[in-house]
């Protein structure tokens, strides 16, 4: 019988916040930190136009790869070598000798961490929680 990974067992206990992200709220992103996008272009994280009231530049919608495959309206950024994770001191754990990032979502606005979701649980509701926060925290045009 195949396992449906989209269904979270009701008996699965929610993780306890271990405090490993408590330092992130209000943190500034290192000005020179860049990640590679799905368009294979470097993206300077501190310069992202991430405010909820801002419009994503049109050229960002021309990205091939995962964005297209998944139907995402934005680029995905890779942190393959965990430079961002290590620089921000985000929570990690090891599995089979490899470091993995604990589920955590950050909202960045103008190079600052504005909100932290951690622990992310249940993971199948995370996107809705983030979308609701973004909608309720839209800056009004002035």
Overall description:
This protein is α+β, with helices and mostly antiparallel strands and 142 residues long. It has helices at 66-70, 83-88, 126-136; strands at residues 34-37, 42-44, 77-78, 92-95, 98-101, 105-109, 112-117. A three-stranded antiparallel β-sheet has the order 2-1-3, with no helix packed on it. The chain is globular, with a radius of gyration of 16 Å. The termini are far apart.
Fill in the keyword field for this structure:
two-stranded antiparallel sheet, alpha+beta, 142 residues, three-stranded antiparallel beta sheet, single chain, 7 strands, 20% strand
Give average pLDDT, whole number: 81
If helices are DSSP runs of H or I spanning 4 or more residues, what is the number of helices?
3
Distance between the termini: 56 Å
Category by helix and strand content: alpha+beta
Task: Give the helices and strands as they follow along the chain.
Answer: EEHEHEEEEH
In what order do the strands lie side by side in the largest sheet?
2-1-3
Q: How many strands, which pairing sense, and closed or not: the largest β-sheet? A: 3 strands, antiparallel
- Give the C-alpha Rg: 16 Å
> Helicity, in percent?
10-25%
Low-confidence stretches: 60-67
Percent strand:
15-25%
* DSSP E strands, number: 7
Choose one word for the global shape. globular
Summed up:
The chain is 15% helix and 20% strand. It is an alpha+beta fold and 142 residues long.
Question: How is the secondary structure organized here?
Answer:
Elements: E1 34-37, E2 42-44, H1 66-70, E3 77-78, H2 83-88, E4 92-95, E5 98-101, E6 105-109, E7 112-117, H3 126-136
